[in-house]
């Protein structure tokens, strides 16, 4: 286990989780302490009375104690804005 001195960690830092939680897949973890998480949702087309798949991509804080890699299934939670683009933090890596 890596020692976590991160101020933006929900477990060892000062960030409080609030709002919604989502499950998604990490598609990019190239930036330092940041991961791009993507998940699919269904959107209803009222004109055609059918549904289409749409993808949602958000930037999430990736604390050193969690350290999610590309392809990992993760749970992210909403928190206060951590930077210009990050409003979510990874709280769990799902084991399957």
- Per CATH, what is the topology? OB fold (Dihydrolipoamide Acetyltransferase, E2P)
Strand arrangement within the widest β-sheet reads 1-2-3-5-4
Show unreliable segments: none
Q: Structural class of the secondary elements?
A: mainly beta
Integer count of domains = 1
- CATH C-level class is Mainly Beta
**What Rg do the Cα atoms give?**
15 Å
Question: Per the principal axes of the C-alpha atoms, what is the gross shape?
Answer: elongated
Average pLDDT, all residues: 95
Q: What's the total helix number?
A: 0
The ordered string of helix (H) and strand (E) elements is EEEEE
Cα end-to-end separation? 20 Å
Helix content: under 10%
Sheet having the most strands: 5 strands, mixed, barrel
CATH 2nd-level architecture: Beta Barrel
- Beta-strand share of residues: over 45%
Tally of DSSP β-strands = 5
What does this protein structure show overall?
0% of the residues lie in helices and 51% in strands. The radius of gyration is 15 Å and the shape is elongated. The two termini are 20 Å apart. A hairpin with an 8-residue loop joins strand 4 (73-79) and strand 5 (88-93). The protein is built from no helices and 5 strands. The protein has a 5-stranded mixed β-barrel. The protein is mainly β. The protein has one domain (17-93): OB fold (Dihydrolipoamide Acetyltransferase, E2P), CATH 2.40.50.1000. It has strands at 17-28, 34-45, 50-61, 73-79, 88-93.
């Amino acid at each position: 286990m890596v020692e976590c001195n991160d101020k933006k960690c929900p477990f060892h830092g000062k960030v409080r989780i609030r709002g919604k939680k989502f499950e998604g897949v990490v598609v990019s973890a190239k930036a330092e302490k940041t991961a791009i998480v993507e998940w699919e949702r269904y959107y209803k087309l009222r004109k055609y009375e059918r549904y289409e798949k749409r993808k949602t991509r958000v930037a999430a804080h990736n604390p050193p104690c969690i350290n999610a890699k590309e392809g990992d299934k993760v749970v992210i939670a909403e928190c206060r804005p951590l930077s210009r683009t990050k409003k979510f933090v990874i709280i769990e890596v799902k084991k399957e």
